[in-house]
Amino acid sequence: PMTRVAELMAGGIDLVTELSPDNVALLRDDARFRVQEQTGPHLWFLILNTREGPCRDRRVRQALNYAVDKQALVEHVLQGTATVAAGPVPAAFDWAHDAGLRPYAHDPARARSLLRQAGYEGGLTLRLLTPTSGSGMLAPVRMAAAIQGDLAKVGIAVTIETYEWNTYLAKVNRGLAGQADMAEMAWMTNDPDTLPYLALRSGALPAQGGFNSGYYESPRVDALIERARASVDRAERARLYRELHRAVHEDAPWLFVASWRQNAVATRALRGFALEPSFFLLLHSAYKRQ
């Protein structure tokens, strides 16, 4: 990323994408460049181990969601380069996203109450796997540290284990059993079906070649996924995805955090280019003014 920024500022290239929050903030104030941002079909979240350990209890999973101040993460760690997420259907799919479903509020008192109900009044310790970098990841180490701090305030001690991206993927994709309670993950998709089908369906467990690394199993969610992917009626699909969104939000198999705002920075000479909500880079109308 720093090489891309150096080349851009030296005039060697005219367009860069996917810069860090720090670099976006720096270049926003530089009159030589135009910064574009677009919230797309992206979700950054923590997979929770629903098979073993404290996260088997839905009250603990909901407590985690209440304990983390996602708005502060978006504003301070990510410097405004993301929006807070409410569930598994990113808001970019405006036809299928349930806009009336609000993200979990930052409510430490509610988190502590749920932990007491679950029998963890004296606190608990969780292990979090974190990559040092990776595809679609949002400052993963800094985000992990901030989440660790928020959870400590409600009596949850978090041990962070960091790994290089390929090592990390190999660990997470074989499932969290015997390894950890939580793991960071990010997906970018082009349909609201993709992420639930590959990562929430009970038929997508690691042993079956899927990416449901937290072993979440819900007959209701399975049925909604199958019905939605079989329907050719867009309105019917939208209704089913909204119901799916609400069901997964309530069950909280993940700690829902944020959807990334894709960024692109171009020199003033580059014209005719705009970011798309699909995250596709469409360059057929772009040209450089001499």
Instruction: Report the radius of gyration as a whole number of Å.
Output: 20 Å
Q: Tell me the number of strands.
A: 10
DSSP strand (E) fraction?
15-25%
Largest sheet: 8 strands, mixed
First-residue to last-residue Cα separation: 26 Å
Detail the poorly predicted runs: none
What is the N-to-C order of secondary-structure elements (H for helix, E for strand)? HEHEEHHEHEHEHEHHHEEE
DSSP helix fraction? 25-40%
Structural class: alpha+beta
Structure, described:
The chain is built from 10 helices and 10 strands. It is α+β, with helices and mostly antiparallel strands. Strands 1, 2, 3, 4, 5, 6, 7 and 8 form an 8-stranded mixed sheet that branches. It has a two-stranded antiparallel ribbon with strand order 9-10. Helix 3 packs antiparallel against helix 5 and helix 9 runs antiparallel to helix 10. The chain starts with a helix and ends with a strand.
